[in-house]
Predict the structure of Nitrite reductase large subunit NirB.
Amino acid sequence: MGTDREKLVVIGNGMAGISAVEQILKLTTKFDITVFGSEPHPNYNRIMLSYVLEGSKTMDDIVLNDLNWYKDHGITLHMGTTVERIDAEAKEVVVDNGQRVPYDKVLIATGSTSFILPIPGSDKEGVVGFRDIADCEQMLQAARTCKKAAVIGGGLLGLEAAKGLVQLGMDVTVVHLMEDLMERQLDHQAAGMLQAELERQGIKFKMGAQTKELLGDNRVSGLRFTDGTELEAEFVVMAVGIKPNVAVAKASGMEVNRGIVVNDFMQTSLEGVYSVGECTEHRGICYGLVAPLFEQGNVLAKHISGVDTPPYEGSVVSTKLKISGVDVFSTGEFIDGPEHTVIANKDDWKRTYKKILLKDGKLVGAVLFGDITDSTELQKLIKQGAEMTDELYESLMGGGCCGGGAKKKASVETMSDEEIVCGCNGVTKGTIVDCVVNQGMTTVDEIKACTGATRSCGGCKPVVEQILQYVLGDGFTQTAKQGICGCTTLSRDEIVAEIKEKGLQTTKEVMNVLGWSQPEGCSKCRPAINYYLGMIYPDTHEDEKASRFVNERMNANIQKDGTYTVVPRMYGGVTTPEDLKKIADVSLKYDVKVVKVTGGQRLDLIGVKKEDLPKVWEELDMPSGYAYAKSLRTVKTCVGSQFCRFGTQDSMGMGALLERKFERLDFPAKFKMAVNGCPRNCAESCTKDIGIVGNDGGWEIFIGGNGGIKARLADSLCKVKTDEELIELCGAIMQYYRETGNYLERTSEWVERMGLEHIRSVVVDDTENRKALMERIEFALNQVTDPWKKVLNDDEQRGKLYHSLEMSNQL
């Protein structure tokens, strides 16, 4: 390292400090940089901790700057090391291991710590905060052994923690002191809608409750509230707030109030020492959100590098939250008072809400729920103090889900260059435009590699694509061409088109004619081609068992001990005493280890030996439940109008009818349905591929729901009045998905890729096309047979698959 360069010591290896370092590196090379971080990890994205908790991402996935990045930029990194104080006289930082490191400039970015309620029992085992990866690991460990959890705090962090724990299978109750969730970001209306949506996702709530003490001996066993009531909990997450981590500042004699006091250039009271992020107090405010720390870091980087910059004058705070498929946004003032003019629109049909507050005719705040398309534009207008006009009113309220028109796209033309596009990594519109104009970048992946935009949560990808489209015009290709696997450069649509055009009949023929790089294909492409051939030629294609996954070849799910599970059909989740007795008798006869009630309202016989499978099917004499296949799994139902006093439609009857009609047909991925007899949603239609809700006037159809790792609420497609319309629309939706879905693509992904409005135009609005789709699915259904009976009637297949000593598990 050059001795003529200034020594910059950064205390804190989190998002705020390293983001500021990234900005400094772009502006100057005059610093030798040393970074101290208390955690034993490189810089990672705390915003993504809930994804690590729920299991959809790993620690490696959320690392923002790996160890090679520090090395490549000549940065000395000390992990797992804490700076105790700054010795201003000696111009050295003093480390907990006794090391003293000289400095010319210091940047403090120590962030914040979880606030733990000072109540009896808060130090018991099983009580954690939710602030870093170590907290995540404790929560993951607890989920393996504990069933009931409580999350104290109904703010942003608390809801993220609750979401993750529910995804891990825990029974979770959010305990909140106030009557409204996220009361610092949402008004009463939006908070109520958010709570209702999260309750549908399985999170429980105890509102207006103050925790008095935590119960238990060494380990927590429950909570006692000030009103004397109690809640059982084997694990407790404290998410009641954060407090700035100011320990090093206090030990160094700096001016500290709630946070480390700084001026408009982020300078502390100690010469040559700066502070940014959650540990910082600027004009009396400590910010706990991401965007302000990037804005602070931008000003600090320019000032410390000797580049002219306007001072930091504070941030217009905004909050974007996407939890369990729910979009929420607020900015500026959001609680209306007598001084405000309120513009509001609530749509219970589409579960959207928009409120804009004016003061003296100027925009001062907004709340959005369900559709946050206008969030970027509103944030800019409120920051500018824009005056409301008829034209602006029409723009904001005349379109989108709340306005009744077609859903708008976020406007990138009107965004300023300073506006942050990627909140996770602090990437502005100007930075992205510079990459396109001056560095020749043309794809999202190139932008991601250069700036970090879209590499974390991915929520900014649509805006990045819009910026590329805006700058490049017709020169922008939305997605780079990718083959379905490494064996080919051909996409799904190209393969299907070639099969139809050339009349290809088998997977080997497809791979040979279309020039596969691997002559035998792979476990990704062989099942896909087999599916496409069956979809295109339902009457002539001979299913290729060798191209099926092992579960589909065996018509049962293999378990880790080599045994299998058997799930017979129970149409609409309804069975009979006679069938229950058969299941019990067969289970005893063949030594079934466990009989499990599934989430799809069926019985799962777990632990059947391979050689016993045909005999079990034969003696059950029930249809296959297809629990192993990419096909219609279940149609879940509630009791409905047959018995329930709230039911308005016969959900059990309709569920059984739909399941009998559409069973046995292959889909791109597993397919689940549900039918509710009323809007109370007991059958959980909101998380199914097709969800149906009965009402007094008929049925409402929802599509694209998913209750798995990537949870998604279903979108409302349409309402129908008759059973005949319902059946026809369900069939048309299924066939359109069969014909256009990528193999293994769930409808939750398919709906977002195709677009709800497009699907609606093809399936609902175009009645002729709907009838054609229905005719094609009827034709395909006429070709299918029950796979269990097929095996029983095929001695050769039965002997080959179920009595051989070995079986290939390549797929």
Remarks:
- The two ends are 53 Å apart (CA to CA).
- Residues 11 and 416 are 32 Å apart (CA to CA).
- The mean pLDDT is 88.
